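quick one
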Amino acid sequence: MPTTFATATHTGLVRKANEDSMFARAPVFAVADGMGGAQAGEVASGLAVQAFEWFVPQTSSPEEELTRLITRVNGNIHELAVADPERSGMGTTLTAAVVRGQSVTLAHVGDSRAYLYRDGSLTQLTEDHSLVGEMLRSGQITSAEAEEHPQRSIITRALGVDPEVEVDTTSLEWRPGDFFLLCSDGLYSMVSDESIAAILAGEGSLDSITKALVEAANSAGGRDNVSVIVFCPDGGADPGVAAASAPTKIIAAPGIEAIETDAGFVENGGPAEAAMFEEPGLFGRVHRFLSSLAGRVVLGILLAAILLGGGWLFTRQTYYLGVEGDHVVIYQGIPYDLGPWSLSGMYRNSIVMFSELEPFEQDRVRRQELQSKGDAEKMLDNYTVQARERRLEAERRAAEEEARTKTSSQNLTIPPGGLP
Ligand code: MG
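structure w/ magnesium ion:
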């Protein structure tokens, strides 16, 4: 069975925006909790998790690969924070997990956490890089004091704050029945480990477990954004999913068949029709109305109105990356024309040239995938950082090359003993 997982996130009851970001595509999972004003936290956490989009562990050392990736992401976020005054000081936590064979590898910076729930007990797998976490480890305070400490939100390590970052990594063997939980501090600062364990022990699907965790944080006050990912490496450790989905399948499958069969029997007046439409309830009456010509006209008008109204709303809320001149830009709308009208307009320009993107990135831009504004902006931010990186690298090489040429030309033109 492949790894199964579920995610849930919520702004909470106090914060205005959700600055947490998550990435979950088995076997790679990541939770990031951003910080910094004016939506900069959202940008930082978004950049952090976006880096996992193309991450596939290649070698026998996922720990090294994760460290390399996170170190690079740290540099990118830092560079963007330095370059843009609006994003100055932004940063993010990052807790990532990769399942590979029998092992789970974790990489971690900041105070988001990874937990293992095994045989009825919950173990924290990461150390919080926070002031309170450090005081706790050095024995200055107790864990009860830590929970109430006024400075418990101060973190001592984050991505993007400094040009360099230290990444903690660890690997462990998973066992059948294990549940791994990645979460932002919005969960554990509101919900005790005992309550988290009780929810993980509960019946229900992984989806209902992640929702219950988020609800527990909100019921306790929801003072922070809360994000959770729960995954089971053996895929079978989710009796809840089986229990919840099995009856749905049993009910749904024959139901669909019955409706399909019924369509045939309407003409023939067979027993299935009798079974289906014995009682002309609301469904029956609506069905008859829609079958009539007048009903079809009304339905057509309604559908057209919904399509036009909804379509207009839809085009206002969708964004995609495209190319204007040779620049990669964000368009608002959808990449189609309706007669003489274009259904999109340029929303944001950038310094990124299409020609400097990697081939797979060019493919992505060419596909003009529809995205939310936030996702499109994150993608373009990422490309901007990479473009800057490449240009700096090219400048550095050019400077080196120039220095080398100068030296060699001097060597050529000045004969030993100097010029005459
Ligand atoms: Mg938080």
